[in-house]
Specification:
The protein is an alpha+beta fold. It has helices spanning 14-28, 83-96, 141-144, 147-167, 184-199, 207-219, 260-280, 292-303, 310-334, 351-359; strands at residues 33-38, 48-55, 63-68, 104-108, 118-122, 227-230, 239-242, 245-249, 256-259. Helix 5 (184-199) runs parallel beside helix 9 (310-334) and helix 6 (207-219) runs antiparallel to helix 9 (310-334).
Length: 363
């Protein structure tokens, strides 16, 4: 799908992690055995996931997943990985909503045992829409599904977002508010500016990303709306499905306290990212799936909140994704997987889409 090799996702050895995990667990559950240690093929380039089973008579938790902060020596995608924060978010979501978040168990803030902080949670069984190759490409279970089955998955998935935003008491999410001044949306954007500055520190900046930040100011909502708990990485690729029904909502490291549309814009845009790539490579993709107008309409029906300023919020999602893509590209260059071109904007896989959004010609 891209001209460069797929970026490496880890510098760690699963077997060594398994040995160290077994030693750590033996302190908490003496006599416990750790078996079937594996790393899922879908492991991302940020926090890492380790799957394993526990054999012990005194624990109800058998099938486990471990979420491990990124290796700080591996040119991380984000500057910090706050595992206690993720653990707290998932615990609160499980307490206050019916969103199927995995039950979290142990939290280890000490980096000593595995080289970075981590937490352990119950493992859900099911299937996930793939990122590589994307579910919009032919040859995967979601693409092969019927229109009715994809419609059912779409309905269930937008319901997840609506229920999270409606059911979670917003006051409980205020601890996620970044430091600084201004509204939750202003602080969220300022935090993204700081992240961008970190990404390009000592490297070539992106003129396109800087134009996108300027365009955001021109489109800034007059009424930002109330802030709620945002899932953060709100997309179907972070959901485990049993058939076409969600059974586990994953990846809360980008959770935030922000307007509803920040989450919804991310959902809309991340699908468009895959759909546009697929069309660009000569396949039709899934043009009738997760359409912006359908998601906005159904979200309004479910919540009573009509999404607004979505041009701003989809641009903001594409901008945020662009910063991540730039960091990943510079990470590839760090590991000698790609050469840095003269034009840093070309490192952003969706630069044409982002440019069209900045110009107001995309939608």
């Amino acid at each position: 799908m891209a001209t460069a090799p797929r970026p490496r996702t880890s510098t760690r050895e699963p077997e060594e992690l398994g040995r160290r995990l077994a030693a750590w667990l033996d302190v908490r559950l003496p006599g416990a055995r750790v078996t079937n240690v594996s790393v899922p093929g879908s492991n991302g380039m940020s926090s890492e996931t380790l799957l394993f089973d526990i054999e012990h008579p005194d624990t109800p938790l058998r099938a486990c997943a471990l979420r491990l902060a990124a290796d700080p020596a591996a040119y991380t995608v984000f500057p910090t990985y706050d595992m206690p924060r993720q653990h707290r978010v998932m615990s609160l979501v499980g307490k206050h909503t019916d969103v199927p978040v995995p039950r979290v168990q142990w939290l280890e803030a000490d980096p000593g045992p595995l080289g970075a902080p981590f937490f352990v949670m119950a493992r859900a069984e099911g299937r996930v829409p793939p990122d590589v190759m994307p579910y919009t490409y032919e040859g995967n279970w979601l693409h092969a599904a019927t229109d009715a089955e994809r419609a059912a998955l779409q309905e269930e998935s937008i319901s997840l977002l609506a229920r999270l935003h409606d059911q979670f008491p917003s006051k409980e999410a205020e601890f996620l508010l970044p430091g600084g001044e201004g509204t939750p949306l202003r602080r969220h954007v300022d935090a993204q500016r700081a992240y961008y500055s970190w990404v390009v520190g000592g490297l070539a900046p992106s003129p396109l990303i800087e134009r996108a930040f300027a365009r955001l100011e021109e489109l800034w909502p007059q009424d930002e709306g109330p802030a709620v708990l945002n899932w953060g990485d709100a997309r179907i690729g972070n959901v485990i499905y049993d058939g076409f029904t969600p059974v586990a909502v994953l990846d809360w490291e980008m959770a935030a306290y922000a307007p509803r549309e920040v989450d919804l814009g991310w959902t809309v845009y991340l699908h468009r990212f895959f759909q546009d790539l697929t069309v660009g490579f000569g396949q039709p993709g899934l043009p009738d799936f997760l359409r912006r107008e359908d998601l906005e309409r159904r979200y309004a029906e479910l919540t009573g909140h009509t999404p607004r300023d979505m041009e701003f919020h989809t641009l903001y999602a594409a901008l945020r994704h662009g910063i991540v893509m730039l960091r990943i590209a510079y990470r590839q260059a760090h590991f000698g997987e790609v050469e840095v071109p003269a034009d840093p904007d070309s490192l952003i896989l969706h630069h044409a889409t982002l440019a069209a959004m900045v110009q107001g010609t995309y939608w």
